[in-house]
Amino acid sequence: MINIHKVKTYSIKGRYSKVKIGDFAKIPLKGKSFSRFFSILPKILRANDLNAVVDAVARAHKNKKAVILMCGAHVIKCGLNPIIIELLKKKVITCIALNGACIIHDFELAFQGKTSEDVGENLKDGKFGMGRETADFLNFAIRDGVADGLGLGESVAKKISDSKLPHKNLSLLYNAHKLGVPVCVHVAIGTDIIHQHSSFDGARTGEGSTRDFYQLAENIRGLNNGGVVLNFGSAVVLPEVFLKALNLARNLRFPVKDFVTANFDMIYHYRPSQNVVMRPVLAGGKGYYIIGHHEIMLPLLAQAVIERI
After folding, report:
1. Which of 45, 139, 163, 190 lies 20 to 30 A from 282 at CA?
2. Cα–Cα distance measured from residue 214 to residue 174, given in angstroms and rounded to the nearest whole number
3. pTM surpassing 0.85?
4. Closest listed residue to residue 270, CA positions, set 219, 235, 241
């Protein structure tokens, strides 16, 4: 029989404790600044991680290191282009990587100030994704731009820039092009509505996206010793592309380590946890996974970074 009276104890005063009152949240007060609000967050768990990501981005900006934003189309559909554009204007983001759906919503916003069709309703009779203007503009932009030696992202950005689209000031690609920030678009053939149209040229699309893959690898070189990668809402394509582009840069003997990665999404996904947060920084650096809705987390992150820089 065990003898409970013989158990050994110790004083908790000498024990390491993960939570301290000095890390607690502060009291919210009416009429205070955003900086005050951000400072009242507890220095615990994901709030502490968010602070660390903000610090990393601000530090990278100060030291002129790469800050690469990767994002899925949901980010654009959530009305976040103005936030990203402001970060471009303040020279915080140095490179953007998008999936193929992003250029669709970005164009439609520039063209008519609205986007995002009712997929379920239009799928019933084969109308889903069959909008004429979107397919013609983007497919012809890619065809012509790639023929002229451009990558896919630059082809579309240049076409929007040269056009008279009424809302192009809200286009992510247009603003990046105007500010000289590279936009890399990584397409999986068959995933985007414009691939259903007769104007689609698979060879040119593949060639343009390949050029963007190489351009991303070139920009990844700038992550070494202090850069940051932010992935918002791409759970499969961009984590996979990023991992290979990083490997390509390292295979060519470019040192790329000691940088920060952060994945932001609404739920936990395997690929970004492995290919953004964990594997890339095994050689040095730190990865973070923060769960939350894009329409809340990206403005929160951006405002905190702008306050910090």
Report:
1. 45
2. 21
3. yes
4. 235
